[in-house]
Amino acid sequence: MKLDERKLQQIVKKALEEDIGLGDITTEAVVPAGKRVEAEFVVKAKGVIAGLPVAEEVFKALDPSLQFEILVNEGSHVKPGTKIALVKGKARSILTAERVALNFLQRLSGIATLTAEFMHKVRGKSVRILDTRKTTPGLRFLEKYAVAVGGGTNHRMGLSDAVLIKDNHIAAVGDLFEAVQIARRNLKATTPIEVETSNLDEVREALDIGADKILLDNMHPRMMSKAVKMVREHNHKSRVTGSKVETEASGGVSLRNVRRIARTGVDAISIGALTHSPKALDISLEIKR
């Protein structure tokens, strides 16, 4: 996933406006206007780095004369004490942009680190780790970028990207069959439809009505294994047509149980925690004396 430059500039602009307001009165009062310094970004904990181009954009947006040097690649696994970037130039500019740059860098690296931990847990299994729409409002594009940097796969960027009929859609129209029938009438024939299920009866119904993907929501791994077996048997019978129903596990996924879920044979596992509850990676900006 590449960073969209226009979107990045818009997000950075808003973040700087939010933080600076009418001005950085502390820096302006303390630091001489002509003072120039060099500062290092230093990692204080083990993790995966994401967001260096974002931090660079922060300094560039505030003061184009600043020089930003990236010392490690995006996605690098680093240990405490690693220097990941340098910034040189006007001290006032560096100090004013510091917090915004760190906020982005720590948050995105935290997401990449957590994603990499999940990927490590399912190593050797042919399963995709997906993100969700449970993102910070306004920052989805950056947070999903960080998931990709950590080795995960981006799911829907927004509601217009794919069809996923969930429990409340079904409740709004009456039942699963009706929901899928309405969707089929209103969509192109080639548009894949994913359906959320919570038990084996719903899985069977989803297969009978021609769902293209089945979301196995909050199922116990034993039930999930049975659901995957049902879907595989269905796919085997349908192999002449070349169609294949995919399975996605979701709900209550953690580092403790993700490998057990992967062992059920699901094609993908979607994890909201990747973006809604990662721990920020500890990174500091230190001015060299």
Structural class: alpha/beta
Indicate how many domains the architecture comprises. Answer: 2
| Rg from Cα | 23 Å
> Which homologous superfamily in CATH is the superfamily of the largest domain?
Quinolinate phosphoribosyl transferase, N-terminal domain
Largest sheet: 6 strands, parallel
Percent of residues in helices comes to 40-55%
How many β-strand runs?
12
Mean pLDDT reading: 95
CATH architecture of the largest domain: Alpha-Beta Complex
CATH overall fold name of the largest domain: Aldehyde Oxidoreductase, domain 3
The N- to C-terminal Cα distance equals 38 Å
Q: Count up the helices.
A: 11
The quaternary state of the protein chains shown equals single chain
* SSE arrangement, N to C: HHEEHEEEHEHEHHEHEHEHEHE
Strand content range: 15-25%
Summarize the structure.
With 289 residues, the protein is of the alpha/beta class. It is built from eleven helices and twelve strands. Strand 9, helix 9 and strand 10 (246-250) form a beta-alpha-beta unit.
Description:
The protein is α/β, with parallel strands linked by helices and 289 residues long. The chain folds into 2 domains: 5-112 and 278-287, Aldehyde Oxidoreductase, domain 3 (Alpha-Beta Complex); 162-271, Aldolase class I (TIM Barrel), CATH 3.20.20.70. Helix content is 44%, strand content 18%. The protein is built from 11 helices and 12 strands. The chain has helices at 5-20, 25-30, 52-62, 91-121, 140-149, 167-173, 176-186, 200-208, 221-237, 258-262, 273-276; strands at residues 36-43, 47-48, 67-70, 77-78, 83-90, 128-130, 163-165, 193-197, 213-217, 246-250, 268-270, 283-287. The strands form 3 sheets. It has a 6-stranded parallel β-sheet. α1 (5-20) packs across α4 and α3 runs antiparallel to α4. The longest helix has 31 residues, at 91-121. The protein is elongated, with a radius of gyration of 23 Å. The two termini are 38 Å apart. The model has no long low-confidence stretch (mean pLDDT 95).
